[in-house]
Design brief:
30% of the residues lie in helices and 27% in strands. The protein is globular and about 60 Å long. By secondary structure, it is of the alpha/beta class. The longest helix has 20 residues. Helix 3 crosses helix 9. It starts with a strand and ends with a strand. The chain has 2 domains: 151 residues, Alpha-Beta Complex (Quinone Oxidoreductase, Chain A, domain 1), CATH 3.90.180.10; 139 residues, Rossmann fold, CATH 3.40.50.720.
């Protein structure tokens, strides 16, 4: 089968699309014929760290792609409720390929209303945003949600789920054009954080009361202004670190005086059982809305598997609004 392999190099990793052996189905897993897989920024950041150094073992070479949508072709021992021919989507290791293995516990049915490309956008981004808004932050109708880097894949998912819950959504971006595009998807207020600066732009828009919840995709360099933007009892959830900044200081008095709640959301270090539980809760809360069209992923652009390097460059150039998808 054809697959996109992450290959270490002296100047960082590169992509090599090559023919490799098709995965062999294992107990508790399903083998799918992949039709689409979405790009996730964290994996492309990891690619850049795959450097070869003299005298040290080379980093592992592997197939990229953390989620996929496709048709089941074979099921492993112990799998029930899933059969060949089913339309499915889920997290995986190796979605940038013609075939991939999915843990059966995390497999979700792909709604007929969604294209393969739309379905491929759901398993990582929407599940983690569901965790942020529904489980950790418990966002409610009538509350105000601030989403940083709103045009990103995570940002757009937070916008869509925030509006689904009945919240007012404020989004930030350095691009006024991107924020204008997001108004078609329900964005109530856009905050351009260019020349004025992030903290100044946000404080000018939100007013004295503040917002009920912040979903941050930028990183530690905006932690302080995000916490200052919260109302009494507000919730802060960090998902992405697009800026690369991971450490910051903040005012503990502010945390105590406003009775703030801080959450970190990630599926990467969860156990398979924990990820399966997240998928189960996601299906119960949101699959009906995806199935009947109330929520639809926003896709900026699709690339064929052979153009994986161009897709990565497009993502890193930060020109997209929503998700970038690989078609196989």
């Amino acid at each position: 089968m054809k697959a996109a392999i992450m290959v270490p190099g002296a100047d960082g990793g590169t992509w090599d699309v090559r023919d490799v052996q098709r995965p062999v189905v294992m107990p508790g897993h399903v083998l799918i014929r992949v039709h689409a897989s979405s790009l996730n920024r964290a994996e492309f950041r990891r690619l850049h760290t795959l450097r070869t150094r003299p005298g040290q073992p080379a980093p592992e070479t592997r197939t990229g792609g953390g989620d996929a949508a496709g048709e089941v072709v074979e099921t492993g021992a112990g799998v029930s409720g899933i059969k060949p021919g089913d339309r499915v989507m889920g997290r995986c290791a190796g979605g940038f390929a013609e075939y991939a293995l999915l843990d059966a516990r995390e497999v979700m049915s792909a709604p007929e209303r969604l294209s393969w490309e739309e379905a491929a956008c759901i398993p990582i981004v929407f599940v983690v945003v569901h965790d942020a808004l529904f489980v950790s932050g418990q966002l409610s109708a009538g509350e105000t949600l601030l989403v940083t880097a709103a045009p990103s894949g995570v940002g757009v998912a937070a916008l869509l789920l925030g509006k689904y819950l009945g919240a007012k959504v404020i989004g930030t971006s350095r691009s006024a054009e991107k924020l204008e595009r997001l108004k078609a998807h329900g964005l109530d207020v856009g905050v351009v954080t260019g020349a004025e600066g992030f903290a100044e732009a946000v404080s000018r828009v939100i007013g004295e009361r503040g917002v009920d919840m912040v979903v941050d995709n930028i990183g530690a360099d905006v932690l302080e202004p995000c916490l200052k933007a919260l109302a009494v009892g507000g919730r802060f959830v960090t998902i992405g670190r697009m800026s690369g900044a991971t450490k910051a200081e903040f005012d503990v008095d502010l945390l105590a005086e406003r009775r703030l709640h801080l959450y970190g959301v990630s599926n990467r270090l969860r156990t398979p059982a924990q990820r399966a539980e997240s998928a189960k809760r996601f299906v119960a809360d949101l699959m009906p809305a995806f199935s009947d069209g109330r929520i639809r992923p926003v896709i900026d652009r699709c690339f064929p598997l052979d153009d994986i390097a161009a897709a990565g460059a497009y993502l890193e150039a930060d020109r997209h609004v929503g998700k970038v998808v690989i078609q196989t």
